[in-house]
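[SOLVED] Predicted holo structure with guanosine-5'-triphosphate

Edit: marking solved, answer below. Original request kept for reference. I posted the sequence and ligand SMILES and asked for the 3D complex as structure tokens.
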Amino acid sequence: MSETRGVVLSGTGGVWSVRAAGGETLEASMRGRLKQEGAGLKLAVGDDVTVARDSSDAAWAITAIHPRRGTLARRAPGGGRGERIVAANVDQVLVVFAAAKPEPHLRMLDRFLVIAEGNDLPAHIVFNKVELVGGAAAIDALVKPYELAGYTVHRTSVKQHIGLEGLHDMLAGRTTALSGPSGVGKSSLLNALFPGLDLRTAEISESVNKGRHTTVGALLIPIPDALGGFVVDTPGLREVGMWGLPPASLDRCFPEFASFLGECRYGDCEHETEPGCAVRDAVARGEVSASRYESYCKLLLELRDIPKDWQ
Ligand SMILES: Nc1nc2c(ncn2[C@@H]2O[C@H](COP(=O)(O)OP(=O)(O)OP(=O)(O)O)[C@@H](O)[C@H]2O)c(=O)[nH]1
Ligand SMILES: [Mg+2]
Ligand SMILES: [Zn+2]
């Protein structure tokens, strides 16, 4: 019998690709006994597993799933009902938007950040294609609310090789879940940072993918770098919006609110219309960005609309 440790790269429908410690990729299925034991524990991309086989011509089976750190999941507080792990062992989330083409949709950016915060994962932001925006002032206006909130914001251009070093150092050696709208340059950035990757970018993928709308699960991509690391490409993240965060917890997903949360007149203040709200006062003083606060209000309404048994 042989046995090795590995990381789950992808998989659906029972067959999983596992990158073994030696670097080779194996196809493996879940051992029957493990399936029964771990009724609640579903395997996810990023999982650290042991695979084994009886002989060199036998099929590989996943025999153990090792403890997870930092999952990216749709939360189901209070029991795990309905929880779905998008990816396991994620260290951080990188939210990529373009400064222009397509125009940044900040409401969506804030949603991605809330998802990261709700999963207790550090989030970083990239504004790519900065060369398309005339003047630093325009970029500064875009970036300011996020720096005010304490996020690290990378300003990059793949076209003009701006800001790539900092991003490289942030990704190498870690597992990063990548999110952001289509066409902002996620694949282009990764290709520029890690030349061995050779990911498909828009010009090609548009024609190849025409008419294909199959939702594939998350995909773990090994980073070709001395430090290693992985990038998780998560098409699913776009729809993780409503993963069951209780409305009352939303304020904690806006880091710039933190120092005001204890100051509201009412302990259960949801920072909407309540009198004596310290968050709204901070918005009025310009210490919290009005645009971010507006996102908070919109997401709050959305969360309240979710049936209680989904939360
Ligand atoms: N002007 C400009 N164009 C860029 C830059 N980075 C990427 N692009 C272009 O933007 C388009 C989309 O790039 P992709 O890397 O495919 O975008 P993506 O975010 O991976 O898109 P999806 O895979 O659909 O989610 C391509 O035509 C790139 O050449 C940049 O810094 N400046
Ligand atoms: Mg892409
Ligand atoms: Zn308040």
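OP edit: Residues 245-310 form a domain with the Ribonucleotide Reductase Protein R1; domain 1 fold (CATH 1.10.40.50). Thanks to everyone who chimed in.
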